[in-house]
Amino acid sequence: MKRTLLTGNAAAAWGARLANVDYIPSFPITPQTEIIESLSEWIDNGEMPGRLVTLESEHSMITAAGSAAATGIRTFSATSSQGLLYGMEMLYTVSGWRAPFVLVNVSRGLSSPITLEPDHNDIFAARDCGFLQIHCASCQEILDSILIAYRLGEDARVRLPVIVNMDGFYLSFTREPVVIPDEESAREFVGNFDPENIHFSASAPESQAVAVLGGGPYSYFRYETHLAAMNGLAAYEEIAEEFGQRFGRSHSAVESYCADDADYLFVMLGSFATKAKEAVDRLRVCGWSIGLVRPRLVRPFPASQLQHLLADRKGIAVIDQNISMGMGGVLHSELATALYGQSGKQPILASFIGALGGRDIAIEEFFEIAEVIKQAASSGVTPPPRLLYTREELREIRKLQAVARAERDELNNNSGHKKGEAQ
Amino acid sequence: MYRIRFHGRGGQGMKTASRILGTAFFLEGYEVQDAPRYGAERRGAPIFAYVRADSKPINERGIILNPDLVIVADDSLVPVPAAGVMAGITAHTLLLINSNEEESEWRHRLNLECPVLILSLKEEVSERAELPYIGATCTGASARLTGVISNRALEQAIREELSELGTTVIEKNLENALAAYESMADNEGAITEGGLASADSYALPGWIDLPFEDARTSAPAIYAPATSVEVKTGLWRTQRPIIDYDLCKKCWWICGSYCPDGAIEVEESLPIIDYDHCKGCLVCVAQCPSHAIEAIPEAQAQALEAETQEGEQK
User: Which domains does chain B show, CATH number per domain?
Assistant: First the structure.
């Protein structure tokens, strides 16, 4: 066991190394590349066994990962953003093979316009594909979650691939103190992969791509996958409990911070939630009864824990780092679904969209969000969804537009001038 | 909590500098967070990196906007908006800048109230990205300014962070870092940990409801940078830059120096646009670090002027 400074990417590489993975199909993409660079360096230096192969695209990479897992070996891969979407067809396909492996996604906003900085539209695009999802808030959690994810995916009740998600830049390139468990205890915890009936040998071909026509058989296979994902709820809690006992770090399906007695709650995912913790601390100093609830497990969705945690509150602010065009925040919708029809008085459930493309959330904005839900609770009127976007930011975009307008005018003037010359 | 930001150009070692300082804090028993921030990774492009250090676990994340110390490895970055050197500098901040200009010159140019320290390498280098050991120098100086990092921790941090680069490189970096550490002896502990924003009294975020704008405006299209066009008179202008003096920080040297037509005059630190010669290129609008220069269509500006004049005549 060693406590040292690691980036989120290095923590992910350590997770894969300690899980004793056999095969790593890879393809580079910012801000993920450091993960596969670290692993390939270790393999080259003989510091870890296994085989790393660079594929020609994420589509092939996910196919290779699923295929490798379908031969019964332990597989790891990593991607981000556009790469995850490029592999999307195969995410749905390989999860249906019911062969588990772990994929790290380093969240990054999607095109267009293109960016490098984080938001969760990439990982939410993969929401319904059959991979389970664990969302991390710290570099330590990334390493720990990869170990947990192998246990979860390989559990006989589940047998599905798992995505471990971290935010680009805010975790991927940020160093924090991380405890690296020693190899022996990590391997004891993860255990050997028991592939059950998954196997491959040259003389015994097996097809993973069966066709089923008529909806009945299709419904059976699809719903069985759903039931397996739902089994992940109980399996996750058991595995996380065992992890906590062994390593002394608790990673329950839903993190709850200062929430037990709180009238008001922030609910959010990922690393920006630690900023909410800081805001909770400072609000509490000023007498606020407020806390944070952060789902760590997003698929399966821990609805009953959230129903329990959110019951009997005055106001809840859901801060979504994603946007479903024409609908709004995805987490807000999912919480509303979970809370609908529950007995008792329903809390105000207000929607905030923030941190798109890595747009920071200032501590003052958390204070103001708290004020908004407090006022809503006292008036009983849910406020409309609020994009966290300031007058200064609009001034900045007006500046960019003004420059673009001036350049366009100038180009138009120039081309008009040239036409005149040609005549 | 200590909040420290390094600014430099790709190749000057700012990421490494932040890591060395982060590790040095960690060796002194601090909780640490350090991170670089860059866009297009290329040599010479502006990058910055930051370090947070505290006695308890750190929940704050992202770019530091209330720095205790800002280190600028390359003074040519000051007027580059993408570099963000000036972001969040207050009277509390200490600005450590590598420059051959005097401290008073920088305070004057940028209208600064904060203390400024000069880190002068006194070396003539043609290629700024090749500035030798500037990262190590910045790290050594900043470590001393915190007052809580011993030279032993600094040395160990350098050995750990540069371990893959070989003895010669390590020794040369150590030499520069320790010299810079010594050079700041008189300023040991000059920076102090910034205070916490209170939930009782805070500046409102200034949220707005984003209005709908049709796709002609709101699609993210850009136009190729216009080539320089020789415009003889301000009559050709279609967009007019207007300075909002309430927002202007009077760092006149930036807009004044960047106007390609020299059409911004300065009177007692106050930039004034000469509309007779301004061609409406809006370079000043783009350069202004506090977004204080607004652009409005020239026709609209002239209509407003006519109204004002009429009002005055009546």
Answer: 2-187 (3.40.920.10), 222-313 (3.30.70.20)
